[in-house]
Amino acid sequence: MAEKRMDKAKKVPLPRASVTFPRKLYRTLELLAKKKRVSLAWVVREAAETYVRDQSFQSNKTKGQL
After folding, report:
1. What is the mean pLDDT of residues 29-47?
2. What is the pTM of this model?
């Protein structure tokens, strides 16, 4: 049985999500992961974090904040 990823500070399981990708995008993600020598999950988490950070920046920018 696979170990669950745990929040080390709180010692509780981290939330999980199931995502379906178009085949071409999935293959691209696999290739990026292989090239970087990381897991596909790491690539997806990194992309999500970047997206959220960029959206926050855009939101602050439209409010006149930085």
Report:
1. 97
2. 0.69
Contact 35, 50 (CB under 8 A): no
Coil, strand or helix at 46: helix
Q: Count of residues for the chain?
A: 66
- pLDDT of residue 3 exceeding 80: no
Identity of the amino acid at 22: P
| Distances in whole angstroms, Cα of residue 8 to Cα of each of 3, 22, 53 | 13, 33, 23
Query: Would you kindly state where each structural domain of the chain is located, as residue ranges?
Result: 23-66
- For residues 24 and 15, the answer to whether their CB atoms sit within 8 Å is no
Note whether 43 and 34 are within 8 A (CB): no
Question: By three-state DSSP, how is residue 6 classified?
Answer: strand
Ordered DSSP codes for 21-56: --HHHHHHHHHHHHHHTS-HHHHHHHHHHHHHHHHH
